[in-house]
Batch of 3 targets.
Target 1
Amino acid sequence: MLKSVRFFLFLSFIIIAFIATKTFAATYSCPDIRQYISCNAGYYLNNTDVGNSCVLCPSGYTSAEGATSIDECYIEVPGSYHIAELGDSVPTICGTGEYKEAHRVYYGDTSSCESCPYGFTDAPASEYINACAKKVEAGFYYTGSGFSACASGTYKGEHFVYSRTPVSSCDICPDGYKNTDILEGKGATSINECYIEVPEAYHIANANDSSATECTNGEYKEAHKVYYGTNSSCNKCPDYYNYGNGTSDIILCQTSLDPGTYTASKEDTTPVTCPAGYYCIGGTPFYREIPAYIEECPEGYTSEEGATSINECYINVPGAYHIAELGDSVPTICGTGEYKEAHKVYYGTNSSCNTCLNGFVDGEPVSANTDCKKLVPAGNWMGANY
């Protein structure tokens, strides 16, 4: 019985509550629950009859927290770019001669680039007006009102001058370097057109050196130009021609010869002993002089191998003859009553005949005193007292 009463009471409560709810709903409107939803950044609130939801902004776009419309979605556009078409998710770079600062574009809008000032429209797209520029051809600079060719000793590559400071100047060649060529009204276009004048017997050892280095023994180098960024080297003299300081030409390469030797040809790499009949004084001949430092003995004279001087040239004088005058190439016969043995006379000296002894002076010249003769008159004989 008690359980039946409790069930009846519960059922009565449910019926009363249902009737009360219906009556309240008919007389009072609840607030729209959708206005209490707040979307995260990058989303916006989408209101529909069905209900509310947060929708992701279009690709490339974002939003602040609590956005309530797609129109609050925006894209951050970097400098030198713009949004060319409605809803573009990728910015388009501005054209040459245009600029645009970084900016924000909301979905459904576009943006456009600004044109650079007149005459400064050669540079690629930039962020600021100060980066608008005029292109200057290599070999020239901009004075602010026109173009001028770089002067001698300067250079300039292709460059831009900017609207904020619309002038430029040429760069000066490095210390020790110059250029003097202005062709068809155009100056040098690069530092590599600067050069250094290198005197003979010198070279530029390292690229960009501002002073020349002397060639060493056995080297040569003509006067030449070396352009900045390059070097030069001395040439090696032929083998064996390594005497003296560096020089300007192969023909001035030198070798050193000991007395009694010479160089027979330019291909020789060692000295040759002076041959008989010649003399070789030695020295330091130039390559152009080869064969050099060898002289033939004077006419009628000869020498031994390895002679070092003309004074080693000699003449073989036969018996009964002598060299009367210095340098005579033909012996002179001795006089009557004279004798002279065969002998050798060196160039620059002479010789004389000897008088026969003991009165034996009547015969023809002979080569030895024992061959001297005395005339005995007819009817006489040669004895101890005659």
Target 2
Amino acid sequence: MPEPEREPGQEAYTPYPAWDEPDPAPAEQPSSPPPPADPAMVVVPHHVVSGKVHLDPHTGEALSPHSRWVAAFLQLFLGGIGAGRFYIGDRRTGFKAMLVLLLCIVLSVLQPPFFWVLWIAFGLWCFADFIMMISGNMRDHEGRKLH
């Protein structure tokens, strides 16, 4: 079959140009592994104590160094200022609890007939956190289970 006519400067059409090209050279592999990190710069996770990682005996997941009983106690008595959340390292939610407490105080002064609704909602939030902490369903800021 004759080749169709081309305009000047136009390349010839090949149906599968990738087949005609040679394979690219493989990427150069490192000859040796990177040097080990400086022991002084190694970061030890919080749940490692005396070189041991504390694991949950039932699930095998890493446990937090924070006690769920201390967190629950703080949440029950000082939950309004976010003490339980601050203890487990959840600073963002702790600050949110403090802001909601401040909002409840300000609005109860400005709008006295409706302040009880805010206080009940805030109290339920604090109590729900308490229940989650004491039942072991709350996790610390790194996602580890409280012991």
Target 3
Amino acid sequence: MAYLAEASKPEPPPASLTIGIDVSKDHLDAARHPGGDTAGVANTRKGQSALLRWIGDVKAVARVVFEPTGPYHRALEERLASCGVPMVKVNCLVPGFDGAFFSLEWKEALWARFTTEAPRRQRQSVE
């Protein structure tokens, strides 16, 4: 006796990419994991379009992570949601932190250390 089996559709690969976005008033700086690719765009509708092209297939994205930054993240959040991109908003881990804990001298020393010891990354515009 013969049995006919339906051809099974291959399962799509699980979403495996994580995109982290640093949101500021003027720029969106993004990094992809795994891979380490980075991109920088203006925090405008045109920049968001360029960022979505850089992200590529949203079905491969497990999550886009960003910190809510007052009014500057809202347009990005709405745009990602309208495209069906899974998002995670991560609040600062230090309650009430606004950068005022540290003196200007301390911040400048920290920045100087970061910029001299951190690997140099060039902002790669994708616009």
